[in-house]
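S2.1 Query sequence (Dephospho-CoA kinase)
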Amino acid sequence: MTRPFRLGLTGSIGMGKSTTARLFAEEGIPVWDADATVHALYAKDGAAVAPLAEIFPDAIRDGAVDRDRLKTLLQSNKQALSQLESVVHPLVQAARQAFLLTHNADDLILLDIPLLYETGADKDCDAVLVITAAPDVQRTRVLARGQMTEAQLDMILARQLPDAEKRRRADFLIETFTLEQTRAEVRKLIKHLRSRHA
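Output structure tokens follow.
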């Protein structure tokens, strides 16, 4: 294979996706993080700030995108989400392409994309790993963070492809119970992919 094997990583909120991505990084696998990319685009002098200031001037504070204000605007305006996506998605795609070029010599890379299926990014992956957990475990984990209400969680879940559908479409699945069990499964999968695509 002349380019790295691209493993897409996704999973609904509270499933353990971010922890799993960190475990891949700890094994030396280069990880591209869609959420971190968006945070950088929204930060002071980030590439998304100027174009979003034209559409949502009230969402900009101190030269950066204020995520809470943006969230409020999205809730009150039906067209706002598609306007936001028209600015952010091309910038995110450009960042992903830059990452792919930088890591062209690696044998395996991980693309951590929460809305992988929803944005069609699975088409750019050689296989997809879905991280999952029981619904009650998921809800308990998210609410324990103390950053959102049940209603906000339900709104996020309504926008995401259902876990059952993600599992159905996955090439690989890891159900997260404990950190050590997840780490062992990550190592096993890396070994499997390397032996299959050497």
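Residues 35-102 form one domain. The longest helix spans residues 80-102.
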